[in-house]
Structure formats: structure tokens, C-alpha cells
Amino acid sequence: MKIAENTFGSRYHVDEKGFYGRFGGAYVPEMLYPNVEELQTNYLQILRDPGFQQEFEQLLRDYVGRPSPLYLAKRLSEKYKANIYLKREDLNHTGAHKVNNTIGQILLAKRLGKTRVIAETGAGQHGVATATVCALMGIECVVYMGSIDIQRQAPNVARMRMLGATVVPATSGSKTLKDATNEAIRDWINNPVNTHYILGTAAGPHPYPDMVSRFQSVISEEIRKQLLEKTGKPNPDYVMACIGGGSNAAGAYYHFLDEPDVKLIAVEAGGKGVNSGFSAATTQLGKLGIIHASKTLLMQTEDGQITEPHSISAGLDYPGIGPLHAHLYETGRATFLNATDDEALQAAYELTRLEGIIPALESSHALAKLGEVGFKPDDVVVVCLSGRGDKDMETYIRNLPANTGDNA
Amino acid sequence: MSNRIDQLFAAKKNGILNIYCTAGFPELNDTLPVMRSLQAAGADLIELGMPFSDPLADGPVIQDSSTRAIRNGMSLRVLFEQLKDFRKEISVPVVLMGYLNPVLLYGIENFCKKCAEVGVDGVILPDLPMDEYESDYKAIFEQYGLHLIFLVTPETNDARLRKIDGLSRGFVYAVSSSSTTGKDKDMSHQQQYFERLKGMQLKNPVLIGFGIKDKATFDAACAYSNGAIIGTAFIRAIENTTNLDTAIRQFIAGVK
User: Fold this and answer.
1) Options B6, B30, B58, B165, the catalytic residue
2) Residue of B nearest to A182 (CA)
3) CA nearest to B153 within chain A
4) Between the CA of residue A227 and those of A29, A69, A270, A376, A389, what are the distances in Å?
């Protein structure tokens, strides 16, 4: 397990100025400039340090439980007439891919001499993963979470508090993930010296999109190795992942970005339908702009005010998309689909019944499009099962179809 | 020297009072009445906020005023409409402050052109990176005689400060501490930073902002600079008033 090496020069990786094509950059006010510059200057050097890599690798193995299995889902494969493998990020400690990034960033924070960590969270998965590594390292942790999300994700709030984190409600704006991110950034402005901001997705100012992608790239690195063992070839025909900000997709795509025979499928949250006014399908509804210090596609009014997205999944409920993904969309390197709330729910029930795996609502969006890609029977398809569904049980139970459950 | 900001600093070196107010606040059509009262009460410079949904550098009070202004219907289009004839009655320099996203969507050139047309003198865009301004937009701003004012903070090192001073036109906006607007931090901790700023003898005048709220903090800031900027405290003073003009006059009288 190795953190991906420098790939400057590749068409799909970040350039020296922090851009992917015309997306990315660091649009930060001067108050944040020293913090961001400190990261820009140091992150590659720290990530390349053998001591850092060894510690990262050891924690991923012994603490997170990596490598996560690559599971050939037989009954799902029969149904969709292809060889469908699930990359089981749901089996990681804390239940999702988020922990790959928080392990990397907490080690980085320590090397930068930071004594306090802040984070934003939507569904609470990144908040839990951050609170977990802070407990592990004995570092103070403050998590910003929209006050509306605090209500709808109570179990994760309880987990974070049990882990010793302070959960601060974001009460400004729409009181969800976007506002939690604003509050975290403000905290960082007010505490520039001792605090590291563990951003949870492949978005925000450079170097976050690249740094988070590199930490998550362990996913695609393992996929290659595991596929080679199982099929004799390292490359699948398709890699599918859901996209909110885009960290699990960035990790699942990473080692395949420059392999043109591997088709990349991104599934956004369609909400109640792309044109319903209640959607989070950023590539379909967004325009070029700046959100959280990154130039990318984002949902906004004709006056340039950032709008509130909708998704049944709090983890995909974000009005922007990471700059890497905006670039993959614009260049056509990845195909973007979207799944509605209902389609995601049905996909979750289907996976549960066919394979005995209860997926997170986020991951269910990727599963929901298995029938629409047009696989050939020999195709090897990898779906990134980014998280498990424990946190979504209330939603699943509430929406359970009438023909499931007890037959008694 | 046609820019009103330059004229102001040529005529007055000390104690310059710059008041920030969000456009379209408290009510949509209060933009001009607020400016009128500010000018009458003796504000030297007016900073008009272009409201944005996600103002990263601002604290809750200014964000709430932005949210309210947006709900009132404020936008760049509406703002330029309101400012169409304001130079017939307002002579103090006016600076627009806001975030890059709405301006980008409006179009930088279009924006600069509109500012010049209505008589805006300068612009503050905290999230516009210096390098991008220099390579992509500087020529446009200069073509329309519009000053772009950059921020510096206690964490800005000397080399960067020199570069910012070189690019900034009109004045340099010195953020008094590492904070968002409206945060109370002990001004005395900033003395060393203010001394450093003063000692550097920048080519631009310096106005100090963030944490300035009353006569004491205003006077303290003025001891090290050409003047200071008040935003949050002013917003608080007018947000619930029934008589805008009286509230503004009382506020300014309390500071000067």
C-alpha cells in the first residue's frame, strides 16, 4: 500500500497551480492564505516521507482493517448480466471510506505540529471518522454539522460525542453540509496557528482535492491488485461510484484515470428528479463558479447565490462537486448519471435481499444505475460500496415496501 | 487623480471613517437612504456589501444581513439599478465589497463597466487571488479606473505585504486580527502588527478593519493608520431601528 506518487503532467491529475483543466485553485481570503499555503508547501513532501507512508499503511491495515475485500456479487451479477464486484469500503472501521482520508490527515496534522482538529460533516460519517482518529491520537476535535443534519443523523452525533468530539451546530444559511463547511472554514480563520482542518471530500481549496484523492487512492490501488488475482487482469471495464463532493469516486478512479479502456461512471443524487427543483445533480444543474474556495461546477441562482440541493442522502446533499470531477465531466472522461431518491432506496433493498449487504444510501445511488449502463456479459464491473447502511436504518424502515419484511 | 478614494486620502490623512453596510439592508430600498445619512453624518468612505449566500470571511452578523438582503431581493442587477443616479447626491467615495462568485457570473468586464458608469470607486473581493487578478483582471479594472483593494492580516509576511501593497490601489485593508468580522479580540495584541505595518511605510494608505466597534477601538486603530472600517457594529445599530437616519447619526456621532 503506497500513497500515489506525483502525477503532474497527466491530463486528469492536478497541475502545479492546483487546477484540473479550468477547475480547482485556491480562492481563499487573505486570512486563510497562510493556512492553505502551509499545506500546499508541505503536503507532497510529507506524503512522500517513508516514515509517514509506513505509519499510514500500518494504521490502514491494523486499525481500519484494509485491504477491504473485493467481493464478486454473484446474484447481483446474474441479475445485471455482468461480473459485478463490490469494493467493500463499508467494512472499514467506522463504516465507510471516509476513514482512509482522516487517518492520512491526522498523521499530516501531527507532522505540522497542530494540536487541534476541526471538520465539517453532513451525514456524520466524516465527522465520526474524524472524531475517531482524534481519539486515537489524543487530539482535540471540533465537528461542525448543520443543525438540520444534527436532527436527522442523531446516532452519528451520539457517536462523535462519545468519541470525545465537540459537535457544533451550524445555524447559518440552510443549516446543512454547505453551512457546516462555511463554519469550519471560519473556525480555521479564527484559529490559524494551532488548528488543522480535516476536510472530508475531494473539494475545497488546493491542495485538498489532490490530497484527499491521494489518501483515498488506496481504493483503486487495491482494486487493481485484487482484480489481477481474481481475473488475471488489473483493469476492469467499468468503475462505478456515487458522487457528492466526490472522495470515494476519486479514490475508486484514481489509478484508472490514465487507463482509457477503463470506463468511469459517476452517479449523482437526482433527488426527486433532476428538474423537480429538489435535486443535487450538480453537473446537470450547475454552472461554473466558486464554492468553498474552489472553482468548479455548482448549483446557483442566476444572481450567483449558491442554492440548496436536495437528496435523501445527507452525504450527497452538496451543491458543488470536486474540481477533479468537474474536469472528468467536461472532458468526457467519466460518464455522469443520476439516481433519484426512490431509485436509490430500491437499489438498497435489492442489494440487501440479493447479497445480504445493507448499503449506505449514498452507495445505493451507484447501485441504482447498474441496469442503465448497458453491460456485456463478459464485462468486469467494480462498484465502490462506499459505506454501510446502519446510519440510514430509520430511512430504510420508514420507506420499506409493503411486500418486504415479515411474512407471518 | 480622478478617483474619489485618491482625492480623499490626498485631502485627509488621519481619522478616516469607513462604514460598511450591506446593500439592500435592512430593507431593499434602504441602500440609498443609508448612504445619504452616512454622508450627512460625516462618514468619509462608504463600503457597500454585495450580499452573498456563503460569505466565508464574515461573521454571523454580516452574514445574517446578507441573507436578509438576498431575501429582500438584492442582487448585482438590482444594486446597479439602485445606484444609477446616486452620484447626483452622494459625493463620498464608494467601495463595493463582496465575493467572487456573483461577480464572475455577472462577468468581470461587465461588472467593472457598470461600476464606472454609476460612479463606484473601488472594489474589495477577499477571495480573488492576487495572482489571478494580476494575470487576468488587472488591466480591465484599470481600464475602467476602478481601484481593487486587497486585504492583509497579522499572518501576512513582509514580502507578501509588499506585493499586496504594489497591486492594491486606493488603500490597503488591514485585518486587525486573524478573525472573521465581528469577533472581539484584544486590540493590544495587534499593536506589534500595527507597528510593523506603520514601519513598512507602504505606498498605499492603510485602513484597519475587523473588531472596530466604538470610539475607543476607532481611535486605537487610527493611532497606527489613516483610519478604520466599522461593519458589524454598524449593522447591529441599524438592524432593528425604526428611524434609520437617527440611528445612523447617533452611531457616527458616538464614534467620531
Assistant:
1) B58
2) B56
3) A31
4) 45, 11, 31, 18, 25
- A214-251 burial, b at 16+ Cβ within 10 Å, e below that, comes to bbbbbbbbbbbebbeeeeeebbbbbbbbbbbbbbbbbb
Q: Where are the alpha helices (DSSP H) in A91-207?
A: 98-111, 125-137, 147-152, 154-162, 177-190
Report CA torsion sign: B207, B212, B213, B215: negative
A vs B, Cβ pairs < 8 A, gives 109
**Complex confidence, ipTM:** 0.94
Q: Mean pLDDT lowest for which of A99-103, A313-317, B81-85? A: A313-317
Contact assignment for A186 to B180 by CB distance below 8 Å? yes
Q: Which residues contact A160 (CB under 8 A, 6 or more apart)?
A: A121, A124, A127, A128, A131, A143, A167
Minimal CA–CA distance to A240: which of A125, A343, A357, A375?
A375
Contact B155 A293 (CB under 8 A): no
- Partnered with residue A87 across adjacent β-strands are A70, A384
Report the number of distinct structural domains present in chain B: 1
Q: Do A290 and B103 touch (CB under 8 A)?
A: no
Domains of chain A plus CATH, in order, are 31-62+98-211 (3.40.50.1100), 65-95+217-398 (3.40.50.1100)
Q: What is the mean pLDDT of residues B82-90?
A: 98
Q: Which of A185, A193, A307 sits opposite B56 (nearest CB)?
A: A185
Q: Could you tell me if A173 lies within 8 Å of chain B, comparing CB atoms?
A: yes
pLDDT tens-place string over residues B202-244: 999 999 998 899 999 999 999 999 999 999 999 999 999 999 9
CATH code of B68's domain: 3.20.20.70
- Rounded CA-CA distance B147/B45 in Å is 14
Q: In what order do the strands lie in the sheet with A195-197?
A: A166-170, A140-146, A116-121, A195-197
- Tens of pLDDT, residue by residue over A294-338, are 999 999 999 999 998 999 998 898 999 999 999 999 999 999 999
Q: Which range of residues forms the domain containing residue B86?
A: 4-255
A364 pLDDT band, cuts 50/70/90, is very high
What are A182-199's pLDDT values in tens digits?
999 999 998 988 999 999
> Do A189 and B100 count as a contact with CB atoms less than 8 A apart?
no
Q: In what order do the strands lie in the sheet with A294-298?
A: A19-20, A23-24, A294-298, A287-291
Q: Which three cell numbers stand for residue A380?
A: 468486469
